[in-house]
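User: Predict the complex with flavin-adenine dinucleotide.
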Amino acid sequence: MPLMTGRQYLESIPKMHTRVYIRGELVPNLVEHPELRPTFNAIALSYDLAHEPENESTYTCRSHFDGQKINMFTNIHTEPDDLVRRVQQLKNLTPRHGGCVGARCVGSDAINAIYATTYDMDMKNGTTYHQRVQKWLKEVQEKDLAVSGMVTDAKGDRRLGPSKQPDPDVYLHVVRETPEGIIVKGAKAHQSGALHAHENLILPTEAMTPDDKAYALAFAIPADAAGITHIFESPACTLRRSLENSDIDVGNYKYGVHGASLVVFDNVFVPWDRVFMYGETEFAGPLVGLFANYHRLAFCGCKSGHCDLILGALQVSVEYAGLAKTEHVKEKMTDIMFNSELSYGCAIGAARFGSRTPAGVFQPETSLVNAAKLQGGKAVCIAAQQAYDIAGGLLCTMPSEKDLKSPVIGAYVNKYFAGVEGVKTENRIRITRLIEYLSGQSSVIPAESVLGGGAPETQRVMIRAMFRRKSKQLMARAKELAGINE
Ligand SMILES: Cc1cc2nc3c(=O)[nH]c(=O)nc-3n(C[C@H](O)[C@H](O)[C@H](O)COP(=O)(O)OP(=O)(O)OC[C@H]3O[C@@H](n4cnc5c(N)ncnc54)[C@H](O)[C@@H]3O)c2cc1C
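Assistant: Here is the predicted structure with flavin-adenine dinucleotide placed in the model:
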């Protein structure tokens, strides 16, 4: 089957019955809703780019099953080059939309993690999960479906594991088995693109103990399955879309909504052939660890692309303000690029120096990818901080589009927020609104850049573990050089 186009993707959504609430109201037509449409646009763009000859090598590849052309987002990575292209793809894609394509991107990472881990589980336990994943994935590749990756549980009291929580539902779990499948209850929080996806791929959120059998759970489910409700995010920038009904004030009109939701599973039925893990607590940790490695790798391409977009927007802004030749401004821009490229390069290194799992899936190198992820989050924060400085007070004191266009006061706004002669004040305001959006003055980007892919401490833990693994060897080298013989 040929790859889907953006239009076909947009047409496929109304055929589903995904249940979405925004500010307490059920949304009748998802694709037309002003707060949902931007994320649909970004995902549609990711479909369209795969059809452009100049993007073919970035957005498409050959299925490892049968060599058919598939979208990169549904690929199983078998070579270091696949991982390198994954990073490059997001570095290329993010600056084109400045939003989020979690409905494809996080899913890609979950697909690779579950593919590799089910193979290991079957080898050890004689189960048949890997076959089920293969069957499901073949359909995903053939139909070019959008798959979101669902990992993060609600988690309740952070001191307690899944089976110790006073409310058992704060971690998604099995409540009942039937001859046909399992019934699950609980929720997944902060789910990027889950409601924009055709399929949701669910993984456990953390390592588990033998008591947590009902929670060691992985499965695939259509986003509109009976019993699933998506409760949509409502950050300040997205809210502004409804209040203002204006294209300038939202900064990134076409694509700029992140698109995450709280996904509630109220006794949802999952047929056995879609269950990919159930009760194998010892594999929950390795599965989520592998997912994290893939997702942190992709994150670096995405965030470096985001920094590129900020750089472009800032350059326009300083040219409009007559600051393009100012030395300290150039220095600050260099600082943004330096920090962004550091993460990007480190991610490419993690891709190149990864290793193959027993299933033949290529995974990123752990210490490099965790360092790259930490640096990527830092780069976005540094870019935002520099943007506050470079863009000036206009960034947070801009009047609205209605003021700009008012017959009474519009002339004042035009006159006093003008920059260099010949530049329309409206354009200066437009680019500053984009910087406002990109630098997180009104968006989810800073928090997402710190927390997406796991809170920073989880990367530090992995880096510490990798250091412990190497420390004996490193100490031995140091002692040898220092002439210590013990
Ligand atoms: C915009 C956005 C999009 C996202 N998209 C997705 C997605 O598509 N799919 C998905 O699965 N997830 C997604 N996430 C979730 C993301 O992975 C989590 O936000 C992250 O793992 C942190 O979890 P939390 O938000 O529950 O924060 P918390 O777990 O509450 O963490 C808050 C702080 O508490 C610390 N902490 C928490 N528990 C402990 C503990 N037991 N011991 C010590 N310290 C602790 C953390 O280190 C952190 O500093 C997204 C997040 C954001 C912000």
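The first strand starts at residue 20 and ends at 22.
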